[in-house]
Here is the input.
Amino acid sequence: MIGRVRKAWGESLFYQAQLKGPAPDRLFHQPEDPRTPDADLAKSLVRGRIALGDEAVDCEGDLESLWDRARGGGLLYAYLQEFSWLVHLNALDEAGRAPARVLVKAWLDRYERWSAQAWTPYFTAERLIALCAHYPLILSGADPLWRSRVLTSMARQTRHLARTAHCAETGFERLMTALGLSVAGFCLPGCEGPAERGLEMVRRELRLQFRADGGHVSRNPSRQLKAALRLRTLAAAMAARGGQPPGFLRHMVVRASAMAVFFRCGDGGLAVFNGGYEDDGRAVLAAQKAVDADAAPADFARHSGYHRLSAARSLLIVDAASDAGERHAFKSAGSLHFSSGRARLFVNCGNGGHRSAEWRKALERRAAHTALSFEISPPVSFGETVHRRAEEAQGQLLEIKRQILTARTDNASCMRRLYLSADGGDMRGEDAIFDAPRDLVANAVLRFHLHPSVRASLARDRRSVILLLPNKEGWRFKADCPQIQLEKSVYCGGGAAPAATEQIVLRPPAEIAEAPGAADMSGGRVAIRWALRRLDAVQA
Here is the structure.
């Protein structure tokens, strides 16, 4: 019933009259799209083939039918409606112009007047940003009637967005919608009113969604990067119109960009935490350009809950926040990312947002992170966290102690102690559990998920693992457990199809579970010590 009412209202003459206004004849500003285009994806799209996650469509060259074949509400439908494909077709230059115009014309034929799904606030904002950034591909050399049709539609969508931006479903979508409205309003003549309305909404959402250190409340590095780049785009659009970006916007551009660069790894991508992806190195570099020397990212993001330890070519990033009561679903407390140079070694499994619901639920669990987990039901949560960090000439030490929240005990806790040597060739760790029931300790599992590019070989005595990185660098992993296990894992941090990989698994000695009174409080301390050393460092 609600859907029918919305459809009737959107198509009514009264609402359509509210979308009328001055018809623009040009754009004042072309925003920069820092993403790296994929020429192979563009060529596949020109042939009418596109695949995202579990969805795939092949229209055999009939590009117009792509809009009809994509399921409403699916990932492929969202990708098409956001016009994310424009950046890739732009990589083909002249060869991408005709397919792009065919797809845009097919969209206008179906959704130009109004559509409940296609004109949702988030889709509309993303679509307007893409059209503004790549309008030469659509309009260059075109006849006046085609230019007028496209620009008039963009202006109508901008006015529609000014009335519906507050209806975006999630907080992050509201922020992106407000930023898209502002950018489109400053780029299109006659849309200054919607631009100012969007700017006020941006001010409100920034106050609600960003922490004092510039981090987004989602603690998702990919969302952090997207927000930082969009803020930078808005500031550039305002400057192009001859205006001075307000102080709050200039300040947030720098702070948000610095926090995005905090997660930058040696290969140029982002560390994978809390549903993020490795993302686009070119986009990360664009965010880095907005960071001045005074706002360089610190090694500790106090309000966002991340530590960064770097030494020589090695980089260690640790999630030091609590996941009890967090609004996001990823149980990543205590997880870490470790890389050497351009090679990633220890990672988290990533985001299953482009897969089915079962994938998403599995990748949100604590077992999908390089961290301590408990194979017990109901799931265990971590509570209040205490950090301690020390830096000396020999190396850096980080201690993170957190409560274990269970229904049977109030004083159980665990501590992760990490040490990184000054030369970056020696990382040591200790994961200890205090005052927990014996059966809880017996079900503790310590996992180290490996990046798919890492080759792992388990020693015959099962006491160490040799790890070979793509750059031919070798590392040895050792632990004081009775046995080290090498099990299968999966990695979705690249944003494409899941990649098969492996994980190092450590468990406490079996004697803990077999001891008398195993269900009673242990009242003591159980620790697993491990070390990761570069082979040349060991030989030296």
